[in-house]
Amino acid sequence: MHRLKGFICAVFLLFGVLVTAQNNSIDSLEDKLSELKLKPNFSKTDTIYINLLNNLANAQRFYKSDSLLLLANQALKLSKESNYKSGESNALLGLGDYHSDKGQHNKAIEYFQKALETSQLSLNSALLLEAQNSLAVEYSYKGDYTNSLKFYLAGIDLAKETNSDIQLSAMSENVAHLYISQKDYDQALEFYEEVLKINERIGDDVVSAESMSNIASLYADINNLDHAMFNVNSSIKAFEEHKVMDWLAYAYEIKGKIYLKENKYKWALHWYNQSEMLHQNLDDERGKIDLYNGMAEAYLGLENDSLSEKYALKANAISHQIKFMEGKKKCALTLYKLHKKKNNFEEALKYHEIYQTLLDTLSRNENKASLNMLKTKMEHERQKIELIEKNKKELASQQTYVYLSLAILVIFLAVTLLMRRGERIQRSLYQELQNKTKDLEKRELELRKINETKDRLFSIIGHDLRGPIGAFQSLLKYLKDGDIGQAEFMGFIPKLRHDIDHISFTLNNLLSWGQSQMNGLITKPTSVDLQTIVNENLHLLSETADNKSIRLISHLNPNTTAWTDANQIDIVIRNLISNALKFTPENGMVTISSMEKNDQWQISIRDTGVGMSQEVINKLFSKNSNVTTYGTNNEKGTGLGLSLCKEMVEENNGKIWVNSKERKGSTFHFTVPKSKTTYKKTA
């Protein structure tokens, strides 16, 4: 007990030192401004004075946002009076940061766009990169991932041209954040590997620590908690040493998040409290949302419902203030659990409906964002192809120049050695031309396959989505024209909800299959806990099972760890359980079990449903089939799920098959390799 108390006192002492250090930094800038004003020839339009104003404004961002607004406006006015474009661009960036922190996305984008245009006039590449990065970040806050990715890609290209490693690191890391928002963790980790290489070249402890704290958050999201703890401890050490207050508060919050993932609620609250103390001297509303949500979950775990509700409501208030839907969704889920626990079912239902609405909205936004990011990526690839064509023409021009040079050398010098040298150059250029031609032919084939995939996607969309959407449109028209009354319309609500659930499920399968067809199915196996994936899908589909009074039972062996691609196996399991629920009548049962077979796991999903004939079984996994079958309650499938499951299981070195008898039920089996790989310690 005394050791713990002593440790807490030491943390308070460190907190005081860090606050003092940050205040000293701000005081130092204010002293420099005062000294400059006392000089005989002082002028407010002096660029040194304007730069100090901008630096002080930036230092006040997370401490006194009103001071940031005041100082940035002063710097902007003086920069315009002296026609100092760099100062004007810097001030506009500060004003954009202020409105960004207030959740005023359109206003922030307006200032960042002006900063971008002004920095182009000043020919200041550093400010130009900062403006592009700020615009990309703000568009991601707004949910416009297409524009966000566009500015990131342009910024990355410019950073490489100007050898600006700091901005290259920041923008590559922010692109990783976009993939995290889409739950594409493997792609995010690939970007972080590049970020770590860039940070080694930079050699700045604080820059490296910022990346490590974000990597720690990513590892926590994928439950790789050992790696998460190693990275966050390393970042905390650097932030404490260099007294970087805002990032230290964030790192403390990530450490609390890791303990929360381990269900160590008291330790989670300890680190959340350290972050909360730092936030008392910060003006960072966006940073408080995840902190307060984490504290609400920790107090809920400790059964301290009153404090859990207090922090959930605080996070909810900030989320509404800055229009942050993800924060509102987490708050609604926590408040739903709290009121359900207190048997306050009316309030619990209200927050559950809010949570479900936000979940559906974010899911639709994520799907739209995935398509837009894919479209942007393809556009970027198209530009690369155009560049290859341009290089091809330049190569042909160079080849003509070589021939002409050789002819002149033969006429005037007639030297055999030079002729042989010219022939070697010609062969080299010809080979390079051949390689470029093969590459272009390959890309032409890829584009043709993409067009074929697009045609099939539209065929499936027309087949499986046009019907329910058309029915919904007709029903709304009847209501609008007065052909049916409101009471009759309400009677169709269960069917409408069923149709919308079907559309959502269909779109998820189409997106996964379409992306795999366009880019080629990229499988990135890792060590995966199959029990966790099964439990998550059972939770996700529990409402569907409850509606049909179907029991969902898992008999998976403990430590069922496989070497497979987590996202792909998640899609397989979700489709198979969903199909089992679809073809099982009311009061039935769906059972998930596992069996060891040498170096593989066999996973089985058994239902007590209607079963299938051998003729139907023979057509189940056909890649070119999109025939759908109605379930026991007229549920409609995509006609795509089982072919997608087969492709993904085989990509993960497994097999899939089915045993079924009519009116006896069906059992779908698939295999995946056992996990044999251990994690390598992070350097």
Describe the protein.
With 683 residues, the protein is of the alpha+beta class. 74% of the residues lie in helices and 7% in strands. Strand 4 and strand 5 form a beta hairpin. Helix 12 packs parallel to helix 14 (285-301).
Characterize this entry briefly.
The protein is α+β, with helices and mostly antiparallel strands.
Write a concise keyword list for the protein shown above.
globular, disordered N terminus, two-stranded antiparallel ribbon, 5-stranded mixed beta sheet, about 675 residues, single chain, alpha+beta, 26 helices
Distance between the termini: 35 Å
In percent, how helical is the residue content? over 70%
pLDDT below 50 for ≥5 consecutive residues: which ranges? 1-21, 678-683
Annotation, overall tally of beta strands = 7
